[in-house]
Structure formats: C-alpha cells, structure tokens
C-alpha cells in the first residue's frame, strides 16, 4: 500500500512539474510610476573602413574603436496598461563622474591623461516605449555624448525585448520570430533584421552589485529565477544592389549601389518575478560594400566597412543616486 502511494505521489509531482514548465508566461516588466532602476552598460566596438576614391570625400566614415562603460539610472515617469502591452514613459541619465560611474571610453582622455568629461553636467533624456516595443518621443538625446548615446541605445534595445515577444506569453522550448528595420541610417535602403528568439529554459540568476573598485559581482541573497532567451538575428537587404538609394540620399541628389549583411546573437535573462532584464549580452558582426555617387553616377566613392561589437547590460542593486 505504501509503495502504491509512493508511486502515485511520484507520478503526481512529475505531472505538476511538467504542467508548470508547460505554462506560458508573459515576460514583461512589472513597472510602477516613480520606480527607479540602475543598469551597468559595457560596449565595445571595432570598425574598419577602406575607401577608394578619385575625389575628396570629407564626409567619409572613419575607422574607430570604442570601449565604453557606465551606469544608467532610469526613472519610470508613467506606466499605463493598454489592451495589449503596457506603455511607459521614462527618464534616463548617466550617473556623474563624482560617483566614478560616468561613461568612460578609450577616447575620453586628453593628452595630459586627465579625463576630459570629469566636469560634465549630468544630463537626462526622456523616451517612451510603446506597446509594440518601439521607442518614441525621445527628448534631449543629442545632449548626451556620442558614446553615451550608443550605450543608451544598447540598453533600451535589451530592455524593450519583452515588448516584441508574443502577447499571450511563451514557454520553454518555444520560438518567436520578428522582423525589424535597421535604424542606423545606412546608405543602403531596405535593410532589416530577421530575429528568432528561443525561450531556452529557466535558470537561477542574480542581479549585480558594484565593489569599491567598481567591479560587478553577483549580489547576495536568495537567487531569482530567470527565463533565458537566445535571440539570433540576420541582416537582410530588400533593395537591389544596383540601386540601393535611401530616400534621404535621393533628396540630396545622391545615388548608392552595394550590399550589406550582418549577424548577431543575444542572450537575455529575464526575471520571472519582476519581468526585469537581469543581464544580457550581445555580439554583432556587420559588413557593407557600397558606392556613393552623384545622381548622374559621377564622383563615386567606394567604401568597404567591417564592424564588430559586443554589449553587456547588467541590472545593479543598491547604487547611490546621482549627485545634483
């Protein structure tokens, strides 16, 4: 009799576990007006540009390396539930240099070795994440340095991922597909990313805390449980390589020909309790072979661009507020 009861119990708990893993969950953040979040952002990129031209090209892109990191404080100004996904209005700012947390890059130092941004004022931007996951109504983004803008773009892309997932939720083993236009203003029209997001499994996870030396380590306390998503993306081109001219180039009587391609892989950990992105990493490679010329085909400049980047976003606990 006891053996029979034990067998029934084993079958029952196995069924419960299977049912729990089979449930669909919505991986959206549970946000309230006035809530504040802090994220550590690390971003590295390496871009090489080769140019062939018989004319001077003053606007030619330059090869560049970027190694940026910083703490971004985000305040939720308003969170509204809609018939589909929520819409939020938020304010974000990088913590100032007095807290040793401003965005620092390899290009920040002046010839004498001092940080050229140590006296920069704390600046904030405002933005909206709409129910479809698009980022709109951005204000004062141009008040940030180019490096800070890039870091913010990396953060908001990771944070807004949940808005692009199925409305009725996902379960482990399920995949979601999405097509998004390329937002970089490339000289090739019709570029878009085809993204596949796979809900891999659930794993224990921790937010991060900063050591006195500003190193990020897992925070103490009980572990959270996160959904682990693997997103792979491929850059596709809908325009013809023989005439790939975007509308804004046509306005300036320019013509472009060429092609672009790219791939990226993102791993995102989303808390099942709070819906917040706890950490995310992305690695991307892109290349472009393009000729930019006048509308009549004269004065053409040939560009070959290769770029690689890596981004990391970490949710940070117990971070001091920015100084006034």
Q: What is the helix tally?
A: 3
What percent of the residues sit in helical stretches (DSSP H or I)? Answer: 10-25%
Structural class: mainly beta
Oligomer: single chain
Taking pLDDT < 50 over at least 5 consecutive residues as the criterion, the unreliable ranges are 1-20, 97-121, 320-324
Pattern of helices and strands: HEEEEEHEEEEEHEEE
N-to-C terminal Cα separation, in Å? 72 Å
Number of strands: 13
The outline comes out as globular
- Characterize the main sheet: 11 strands, antiparallel
In terms of DSSP E residues, the strand content is over 45%
* Mean pLDDT score: 82
Spatial strand order of the main sheet: 5-4-3-2-1-13-12-11-10-7-6
Q: Roughly how many Å is the radius of gyration?
A: 23 Å
């Amino acid at each position: 009799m006891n053996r029979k009861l034990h067998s029934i119990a084993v079958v029952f708990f196995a069924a419960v576990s299977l049912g729990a893993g089979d449930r669909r969950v919505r991986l959206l953040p549970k946000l309230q007006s006035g809530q504040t979040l802090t994220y550590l952002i690390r971003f590295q990129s390496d871009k090489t540009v080769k140019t062939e031209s018989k004319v001077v090209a003053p606007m030619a892109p330059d090869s560049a390396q970027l190694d940026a990191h910083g703490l971004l404080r985000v305040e939720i100004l308003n969170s509204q539930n809609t018939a589909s996904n929520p819409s939020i209005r938020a304010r974000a700012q990088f913590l100032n240099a007095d807290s040793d947390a401003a965005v620092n890059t390899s290009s920040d130092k002046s010839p004498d070795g001092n940080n050229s941004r140590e006296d920069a004022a704390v600046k904030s931007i405002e933005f909206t994440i709409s129910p479809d996951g698009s980022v709109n109504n951005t204000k004062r983004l141009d008040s940030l340095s180019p490096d800070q803008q890039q870091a913010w773009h990396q953060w908001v892309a990771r944070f807004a991922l949940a808005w692009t997932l199925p409305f009725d939720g996902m379960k482990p083993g399920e995949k979601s597909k999405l097509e998004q236009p390329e937002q970089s203003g490339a000289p090739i029209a019709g570029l878009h990313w085809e993204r596949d997001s796979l809900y891999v499994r659930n794993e224990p996870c921790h937010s991060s805390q900063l050591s006195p030396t500003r190193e990020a380590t897992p925070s103490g306390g009980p572990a959270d449980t996160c959904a682990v998503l693997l997103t792979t993306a491929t850059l596709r081109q809908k325009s013809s390589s023989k005439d790939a001219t975007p509308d804004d180039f046509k306005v300036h009587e320019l013509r472009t020909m060429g092609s672009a391609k790219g791939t990226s892989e993102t791993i995102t950990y989303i808390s099942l309790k709070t819906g917040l992105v706890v950490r995310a990493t992305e690695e991307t490679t892109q290349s472009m072979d393009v000729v930019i010329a006048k509308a009549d085909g004269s004065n053409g400049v040939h560009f070959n661009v290769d770029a690689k980047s890596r981004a990391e976003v970490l949710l940070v606990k117990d971070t001091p507020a920015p100084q006034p």
